[in-house]
Amino acid sequence: MDAAQSSNSVSVSYGVLLKATENWNGQTAGSHTIPNRRCGVECGCVRGRYVSESESSPIPVGVAEYALSTDEQPLRTSGVGSCVVVAIHDERAAVSGLLHFMLPTENENTTRAPPAKFADSGIDTLLEAFTAEGGHLSRTWSKLAGGAKMLEFDSFDRPIGDRNVDAARSLLEARGIPIRDADVGGTTGRMVTFLPGTGELVIKTASGDRRRY
Length: 213
Prior knowledge:
Helices cover 14% and strands 31% of the residues. It is built from 2 helices and 14 strands.
């Protein structure tokens, strides 16, 4: 996964691998036809997971990916350890987004990696797609999850989970987006589901705990 056109936005298709330069308005890309939806993965090749308006199952978001929901369909990501998940929501526009990033800054990008791998480029990419779908940052709020300390020994001066949480907080504050709730830290992994219909962030931990925010 590497960089895609900034106009790519919405949610997603099951394992379809496409070039970012193809037309997203119902045109055929390779051997696949994209049904007038846009992928939420900003990468050199774009993997989308298209979900129809009528489906109610959560839109899956992978590591170093983001996706949007414009029809109150839930967004879900798993395997959240030291990574951080950022959920954003504009209730009036009925647009929501979910980002699962791994590292605080793109400066640590030593390989050609997707912008969604990093807090700084990932949040900006998410917000660009979010506003393209009608979201207004002046009405938008966010919720955070993740940032666990998964390893006893960390190669950084501070645990990467702490650095990820701090990066998300500072970047959202700089963009004027308040954080309503956060479930961060600890030592266990998480599965995170955002419910646009209620604005709830639902956490299920590896130890079996469930929390709602």
